[in-house]
Amino acid sequence: MLSRTADHLFWMSRYTERAENTARMIDVNYQTALLPQSAVVAQLGWQGLLSISELLPMYTAKHGEVTSRGVMEFMVRDESNPSSILSCLRAARENARAVRGTLTTEVWETQNQTWLEVNRMLRAGEFEQDPGQFFEWVKFRSHLSRGVTVGTMLMDEALYFMRLGTFLERADNTARLVDVKFHAVQSDFFGAATEQDQEYDFYHWSAILRSVSGFEVYRKVYRDVIKPERVAELLILRADMPRSLHASLNEVVSNLHLVASDAASETLRRAGRLRADVQYGRIDEILATGLHAFLTQFLDRVNELGAHISREFLVPAAG
Predict the structure, then answer these.
(1) Is residue 104 left, alpha or beta, with left meaning phi > 0 and alpha meaning psi from -120 to 50?
(2) 3-class DSSP state for residue 81?
(3) Cα 21 to the chain's mean position, in Å?
(4) Is the dihedral of CA 177, 46, 31, 69 positive or negative?
């Protein structure tokens, strides 16, 4: 397969997944902001959302004070923000258009329709009327895109590069979400003493689990009250949790095996080592050495892995 074609397919899927994850992260903040809390804590939550995506400097340069309305506008419809939902859906559609001949009609029409529909919804003010419903729509379109891809594409390299993009992006986003949310709770509410704080704790962790479609999964796996260390275990180490780091890396490694011509590939080696760390990791060890340090290192390694995939399989860097 031409490396340029592989590049467009890889990034089409990454941007679609990024739009979904951005919707999930804004939604969890929007939901937790409705809980009784001080204005300072609420503002820290919105700052944390910008920190997840490394967009705080860009936001403050443009808008100054961090407000819920400002952050939602910036993260949903601001075209100057490359990580906004609108920018991601446009980039996904442009990448799809560039390789229109490689995609099935159903995959192309799903991407194109999503782009046309999001523009219509934003112009009609549907996002402002019901933000929660808008975020659900973004998630649904991403699910539809993945389902149509798996259901209609030939099982060849084109599909493998698309899957690779999806799960690399998912690993990155889940790690960012866990890192920022645990950081916020540990500094303000972790080990909550009062009954009111414990109640907040429950709703906070419930919202985080719901943001990764993990609330029912948690109940089924642990059959217990929601405990932070178990939330971390579910989202990092459980291979049977679809959005966990472990599950995402399993998919990355298996799809890399399918596209790598060399079994001794450096990219494959790095992916395998990263997967082994979560496959054989234990949550008590990770928490003892520091969750933030573990996730920061994980994100660095995921970014390095993305760079290696680009160098080895996708468009070679200019010069």
Answers:
(1) beta
(2) coil
(3) 4
(4) negative
Which residue shows structure tokens 């050495």?
289
Task: Give residue 67's pLDDT band: very low, low, confident or very high (50, 70, 90).
Answer: confident
DSSP result, 268-312: HHHHHHHHHHHHS--HHHHHHH-HHHHHHHHHHHHHHHHHHHHHH
Residue 42 has pLDDT above 80, yes or no: no
Residue in 169, 121, 120 with CA at minimum distance from that of residue 142: 169
Range with the lowest mean pLDDT among 15-19, 198-202, 300-304, 307-311? 198-202
Q: Nearest Cα to 27, choosing from 127, 136, 183, 173?
A: 136
- The model's pTM is 0.90
* Cα separation, 246 vs 240, whole angstroms: 8
Largest CA distance in the chain: 61
What pLDDT score was predicted for residue 193?
A: 42
Apex CA 203: angle with CA 200 and CA 204, to 5°? 80
Residue environment code for 20-38, b if the CB has 16+ CB neighbours within 10 A, otherwise e: bbbbbbbbbbbbbbeeebe
Torsion angle of alpha carbons 303, 304, 306, 307, nearest 10°? 120
The three-class DSSP label of residue 26 is: helix
- In this model, does residue 190 exceed pLDDT 50? no
First to last CA, the chain: 22
Long-range contacts formed by 29-34: CB under 8 A, 24+ apart: 29/68, 29/71, 30/68, 30/72, 30/131, 30/132, 30/135, 31/132, 31/207, 31/210, 32/203, 32/204, 32/207, 33/68
Residue percentage of the chain with pLDDT more than 90: 63
Mean pLDDT of 62-77: 90
Model confidence at 73: pLDDT above 90: yes
Residue 112: how many other CB atoms lie within 10 Å: 14
Average pLDDT score, the chain? 88
**By the 8 A CB rule, do 235 and 212 touch?**
yes
